Structure formats: structure tokens, C-alpha cells
Amino acid sequence: MEKSTIKTIKNILKYGIVLSGVVLVVLHFIPDSNFTKIWSYLATIALPFVMDFLRIFGLKISNRLEIAYLLFLIPAMVLGIDFNVYSIVYPFDKIVHCASGLLAAFCAREIIDQTSQKSGELWFKALFSICFVAFTAAAWECFEFTCDQIAGQHMQELITTGLDDTMWDIIVALIGGVVGTVLAFPVKRRVQKKS
């Protein structure tokens, strides 16, 4: 795929998500509106620029990872939180958390590729990846808890009580992370030459 096509795809995804957030912010201020999650809408506007923010610190992010991240924001933020699909379709939340584990494993691969020798030990790369997935899942649950406490949201009580929801979210993210780690760090078989 040409660079201009990739850039166009990224821009369509990024600014489409931002536009949805802006529209929801406007709808929030209409009297008697059902769109009441202002903090979520503001996050929807900001989150597409996370990869640009990370580039400021010299992190090189592949186009593939950035497109995957932007595609992930659509079900995770726009559909799941902004349009409340999490509370309507029960397995949707768990599917998105599993996908977040996959995405975090591929983020770990990007970090390893940029900060260490590519010929490092596979076991360490896999361990780092799983730990990164666990950290990401825990950080997200802290974000949900903060939104619930400060902004009066109910992110941790969509279907079940807070602790059940939190633990299952972390567990399915780790399952996705294990699958993502296996895909991100394939084991290369050694081919023995016949003498």
C-alpha cells in the first residue's frame, strides 16, 4: 500500500473519531439530551492523538499499529462508551477487553523492537509482553474507577458489580494478551541440516 493511501486511511479514522466526539459534545448541551457523558466525549476527541503525542518523545510507531489503535477506538470508545453498547450487549465489553490485550501485546512488540536488540531472549520478550498487557489492563481499570468516582460514571458497573467487572476485564485482556504475544513473537523453528 502506498504511503499516501495509508496516510489517508489514518486521517479518515482519526478525524472521523474526533468528529464523533465533537458532535456528541454539542449534543450534550442540547436541553433534555440523552447524551450525558461529557468526559467520555472529550476523551474521544483527545485519544486519537495519543500516537502523535508519543512521537514527541521519539517513539517510532508503525503505521500498522497506529491504524490498529484507531480501529480499536471505534468499538472501545465511540460505540462502547459514548453510545452505551457495553450496557446493551453483554459480551461486547469482554470482546473489547480481549482485543485490548491483543493490541497491548503488539504495542509491547513495538517497544521491544525499538529499545532492545531484536535477537534478545524470546522468553524475556514474552514475559515483558504479558507484563505490559497486565499493566495496560490495570491502568484502564484505574481509569474506569477514577471516572466512576470523580465524574459519577458507571463504567465498572455495566452488568455486574465493580469488582466482578474489573477482574473479568483484566482476565480477558490477559487472555487476549497471551494470544497477541504468541502472534507478535512467533517461535522460529530451527531447521537441522542433514549431513
Write the layout of secondary structure elements.
Layout: H1 3-28, H2 38-46, H3 50-56, H4 63-82, H5 85-88, H6 90-115, H7 122-150, H8 162-184
Helix pairs in contact: 1-2, 1-4, 2-4, 4-6, 6-7, 6-8, 7-8
| Alpha-beta content class | mainly alpha
Average pLDDT value? 83
The ordered H/E elements are HHHHHHHH
Tell me the number of structural domains. Answer: 2
Main pleated sheet: none
Gyration radius, rounded:
19 Å
Question: What is the count of β-strands?
Answer: 0
Number of helices: 8
Assign a percent range to the helix content.
over 70%
Low-pLDDT segments, ≥5 res: none
Task: Determine the strand fraction and express it as a percent band.
Answer: under 5%
Instruction: Report how far apart the termini are.
Output: 43 Å
Overall shape: globular
Name the features.
single chain; about 200 residues; mainly alpha; 2 domains; about 0% strand; globular
What does this molecule look like?
The chain has 195 residues and is mainly α. The chain folds into 2 domains: 1-63; 84-187, no CATH class. Helix content is 74%, strand content 0%. It contains 8 helices and no strands. The longest helix has 29 residues, at 122-150. The protein is globular and about 60 Å long. The protein starts with a helix and ends in an 11-residue tail after the last helix.
